[in-house]
């Protein structure tokens, strides 16, 4: 009897070990499949040469509106689109690989595709705040605090205006819109003052009273900008509509 009990106990133990092994194998396979599917989803979310669809068309529309792309807005990611994306990436401190991944999506203002909340419609993300601070720092770090907030306010006024892109990234990266983007100073690390100025601008402080433009009359070369109606002068910058 004792021998039968011992054999039964051993059999049960072996069965438990076998069941545990099978469960571990199944779980590992499930995790591997899930990981592979997640990787495929990420790969599918990125746009590259050969991609097609509405997201490609949106990228083409933005790049064309901002002066980086001259081809057709046809939703086909061909060599011309790849070249335009690379150009945009180089100008904005991104890896110029011609692939529209999360960082390039964000720079284009396509926040949903980048996995973030959009910055249009008055909703700003942490990345928007930091990008605005970078713009302020690149454009106005030598100005007073009010002058720095004013530069941020101009960016936000443009976001609200139908004349400009409707995202912070779109406004800042619009071709030839800001000297800091053209000369690479947009990629400098902003100090705490610039970050605070960005937060105040996002919070609604507008020392410019709705201005869409600003310039330094001592360095400006465009005759067109001098034709704009001056609203206020803060430090070295004239703010106009």
What does it look like?
With 241 residues, this protein is mainly alpha-helical. The protein folds into 3 domains: 1-45; 54-107, PGBD-like superfamily/PGBD (Muramoyl-pentapeptide Carboxypeptidase, domain 1, Orthogonal Bundle); 120-240, Cell wall hydrolase SleB, domain 1 (Arc Repressor Mutant, subunit A, Orthogonal Bundle). Helices cover 54% and strands 5% of the residues. It is built from 10 helices and 3 strands; from the N terminus they run αααααααααβαββ. It has helices at 2-45, 54-65, 79-91, 102-107, 126-140, 145-160, 168-172, 179-182, 192-202, 223-226; strands at residues 213-215, 230-234, 237-240. It has a 3-stranded antiparallel sheet with strand order 1-3-2, covered by helices on one side. Strand 2 and strand 3 (237-240) form a beta hairpin. The radius of gyration is 27 Å and the shape is globular.
SSE layout and pairing:
Blueprint: H1 2-45, H2 54-65, H3 79-91, H4 102-107, H5 126-140, H6 145-160, H7 168-172, H8 179-182, H9 192-202, E1 213-215, H10 223-226, E2 230-234, E3 237-240
Helix pairs in contact: 5-6, 5-9, 6-9
């Amino acid at each position: 009897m004792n021998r039968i009990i011992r054999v039964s106990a051993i059999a049960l133990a072996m069965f438990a070990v076998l069941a545990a092994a099978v469960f571990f194998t199944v779980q590992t396979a499930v995790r591997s499949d899930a990981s592979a599917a997640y990787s495929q989803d990420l790969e599918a979310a990125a746009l590259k040469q050969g991609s097609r669809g509405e997201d490609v068309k949106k990228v083409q529309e933005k790049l064309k509106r901002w002066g980086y792309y001259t081809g057709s807005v046809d939703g086909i990611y061909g060599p011309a689109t790849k070249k335009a994306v690379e150009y945009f990436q180089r100008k904005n401190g991104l890896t110029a690989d011609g692939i529209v991944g999360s960082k390039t999506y964000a720079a284009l203002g396509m926040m949903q595709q980048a996995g973030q909340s959009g910055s249009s419609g008055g909703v700003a993300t942490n990345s928007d705040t930091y990008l605005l601070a970078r713009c302020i720092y690149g454009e106005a770090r030598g100005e007073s605090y009010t002058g720095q907030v004013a530069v941020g306010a101009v960016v936000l006024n443009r976001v609200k205006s139908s004349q400009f892109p409707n995202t912070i990234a779109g406004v800042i990266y619009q071709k030839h819109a800001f000297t800091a983007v053209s000369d690479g100073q947009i990629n400098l690390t902003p100090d705490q003052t610039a970050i605070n100025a960005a937060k105040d601008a996002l919070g609604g402080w507008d020392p410019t009273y709705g201005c869409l433009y600003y310039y330094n009359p001592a360095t400006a070369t465009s005759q067109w900008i001098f034709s704009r109606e001056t609203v206020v002068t803060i430090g070295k910058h004239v703010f106009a509509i």
